[in-house]
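Why run this: before we spend reagent on co-expression, it is cheaper to look at a predicted model of the complex and decide which construct boundaries make sense. The entries below are exactly what would go into the expression plan.
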Amino acid sequence: MNLPAWLDNPSVLLALLAGSVGALWALSEIIGEFRAETGRALRTWGAWMLIIINFVAASVIFMIAVSLAPGAGTWTAALAIGIAWPTVFRNVSLKLSQPISETAETGNTAVRLEQVYSNIQKLSLQLINSVLTRQRTRLLTRTLTYDLGDIEKYVRRMIAMSPQPVDTEYIDRVMQRPDDDDVKKAFLAAFLMNTFTRSAIDDLLKEYRK
Amino acid sequence: MIQSNVETTKIAQQITEIQRDLLISLREKGPGLLIEMAVRVFKFPEDVREPIKDLLEKGLVEAQSVSGGQFGGELYTLTPEGDRVLQVIRDPSFKTLPKSTPETSSTYQQQEVELLNKLGDAAREKGDLDKAVEFYQQALEKTRKLSSESEVSK
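The model came back. Tokens follow.
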């Protein structure tokens, strides 16, 4: 089998290895941040943006390291750079211009890469959050078209079947509120989604489909 | 760094029980809208609005504008500082959650009522009934005030 010419270059393969480890870092960040909705979070643009940036950054840092020290072109170095690149990256400052005076603080003329990475990370998480929130509110809105009695019955059944002890007192308090039915439905749906999973809402919508 | 740890512990000591539950829910279940934050701790939006506002002011939580429609336009997320405070709270060596200010103040008021009653008893034993009545009336007023405050906080 003929491999593309660039794949014959061991440095490129090692850069891909470093990049893959970097991508795993991003993956672990997303899992840590969205542990209840990891699968859905990974299906968003924001998640892929963070993973790709981490992949590219680790690969580029490895390539720079190899060009500066040819001896670094080993798989152990690739792994080490893949693992340690966030630490290196976050402690490097880019000097943009000469300070106006010698006493001027370097903070004014340099951009800390840590800040750059932090902004990218924040943007990615915001993008993921926006998508997931839109999905959840869409589900809540759909639930409002169902009968309050059906929703209450379903929530109580879920609580009864739950292996975790969940107090039904909260449901009683929701039902006793002087709010209109739509507000009660919103509370019950939000409770269902947050106490169990989003799949519980999906099942409710399927079971009582109109 | 030590300074920052001390400050984190100080903030952790100011966190009320409901705020602790809200921070835990953000860590465990991820960011949430106001209605989601409320149901996660078995409360209603009017119960969590103020505690969240305080967490926002302390920088432990931040609000992101989202298109949540009728369910609210702000999504609350845990900040790195909030995460650090939560770690302190969850540390087994950090056992004592401080009582919230209203409870502390109600304890002082109860002590005051008891003291007024004792003063009334002492005045009665001395035969000064007018003074005793005065102390008992003051104790009664304090008790009424205390019970009305506890009704409001419920």
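The beta strands of chain B are 32-33, 61-65, 74-78. The CA atoms of residues 33 and 72 of chain B lie 7 Å apart. Bring this page to Monday's planning discussion.
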